[in-house]
Amino acid sequence: MSWLKIIGLGPGADSLRTPEASAALAEATDIIGYGPYVARVPHAPGQRRHETDNRQELERARHALALAAEGARVAVVSSGDAGVFAMASAVFEALEGGPAAWRALDVAVLPGLSAMFAAAARLGAPLGHDFCALSLSDNLKPWPLVEQRLRAAAGAGFVIALYNPISRARPWQLGRAFAMLREMLPGDVPVAFATAVSRPEEAIAIQPLAEADPARADMRTLVMIGTAQSRLVPRGAGQRPWLYAPRSARSP
Amino acid sequence: MSWLKIIGLGPGADSLRTPEASAALAEATDIIGYGPYVARVPHAPGQRRHETDNRQELERARHALALAAEGARVAVVSSGDAGVFAMASAVFEALEGGPAAWRALDVAVLPGLSAMFAAAARLGAPLGHDFCALSLSDNLKPWPLVEQRLRAAAGAGFVIALYNPISRARPWQLGRAFAMLREMLPGDVPVAFATAVSRPEEAIAIQPLAEADPARADMRTLVMIGTAQSRLVPRGAGQRPWLYAPRSARSP
């Protein structure tokens, strides 16, 4: 039986990958994805690996569907959850625009742990009340829409998790976002930078919004912006405070 | 060594619980949580189980901290991710308000797969672009704030995942939310009802917003409201269409 499974690998550590995902990866004949994600998949004998560039999502999705149509068991892999700013949407776009026969393929999405939850767990419980997830990339949407969404979210008191905060090609967007948010939120609202959580190079910092420094972020960073109701709980010397959102919310 | 771990069990199926969570559960001396969640934890010899009512979050959190302070290895369990409308915030609230000694405890949060990702995976990729998660319960926030957040999210084009959509004590809120959203969004925006995903009683339905029926939801349901840009991809007879959010977004 051929199939196509779109698999979220989780944030990095093997111990955060679901058993469901691990079982499917072991049975796949073909692993397809962005190189660094494919490299995270344990090797299985005879398995073919197709490592592609980060930008070629739609071509990669069509390739995966074509392989499954030829009889392969294809795993398309993403970091985190494949449905969150990752490959799942690209596969369904390709499927919608492709040959009718593709719609009869055995396609499934296997969920994974998205970066914001791994980051939140390290920090405490910053997402403990209403929150939103927003890609700061303006590659696939106009920048004014990003600003509109940031304003709507901050104005209504959502905690904001920012994916794709910065890259070499998008150096100014995060600073612009912080500047906008400083006009709407108190300067002591906590901003967390969580980089490569659960991987060896993990790094975490919390800064007040007034001083939040975009240079803290890179492509592996999840940036989380709290609200005026976010709480910091000091711990012992040398330990980061816990950051959490109270269960009860007041109007912002 | 005593510790307190706040653990997300995932949406239900064992195959969606992280290996990290399973390992900690096996080593705990005490499991604490809402009865149906504690019942999901595999039995380990000599382990004590403390099943409490759903409403007593803060008391349960204090109990857990007190046990850890006495030397126990305590697992506080939640369904999904413990940081999403679940026990993690309650533990940090209890910790903040409790004895200073509690701040020296070895506390950690182990992330889990939240219901909206399990639901999204079954549906396709409905969260493929910006989205928010909102509890529809007005037990811990004023209802006007819920309405404000729904309006902000829908107005800015976020996909909306509604947690706690309905209960015996909160029968009208979901209908009110649909009525509000009908004034803002086209009637054909897809609304998904995903109940008990990955458990034996799993049930999924998609309806257009114009006809969305609150009676489809119960306490185990995650309700997801798409946007005018959400796509439905028909499949073969007897199969639900795929639902996905395109990677590119236009202004709503």
TrEMBL record, chains A, B:
Keywords, sorted A to Z: Cobalamin biosynthesis, Methyltransferase, S-adenosyl-L-methionine, Transferase
User: What InterPro entries does its record include?
Assistant: 4pyrrol_Mease, 4pyrrol_Methylase_sf, 4pyrrole_Mease_sub1, 4pyrrole_Mease_sub2, Cbl_synth_CobJ/CibH_dom, Precorrin_MeTrfase
Domain of life of the organism encoding this protein: Bacteria
Q: Which GO terms describe its molecular function?
A: methyltransferase activity
Pfam families attached here? TP_methylase
**Gene3D superfamilies the UniProt entry points to:** Cobalt-precorrin-4 Transmethylase, Domain 1 (3.40.1010.10), Methyltransferase, Cobalt-precorrin-4 Transmethylase, Domain 2 (3.30.950.10)
Pathway field of the UniProt record reads: Cofactor biosynthesis; adenosylcobalamin biosynthesis
- The Tetrapyrrole methylase domain extends over 6-212
Query: Which GO annotations describe the biological process of this protein?
Result: cobalamin biosynthetic process; methylation
Entry's PANTHER family? COBALT-FACTOR III C(17)-METHYLTRANSFERASE-RELATED
Q: Which NCBIfam families match?
A: cobJ_cbiH (TIGR01466)
**Which protein, by its recorded name, is this?**
Precorrin-3B C(17)-methyltransferase
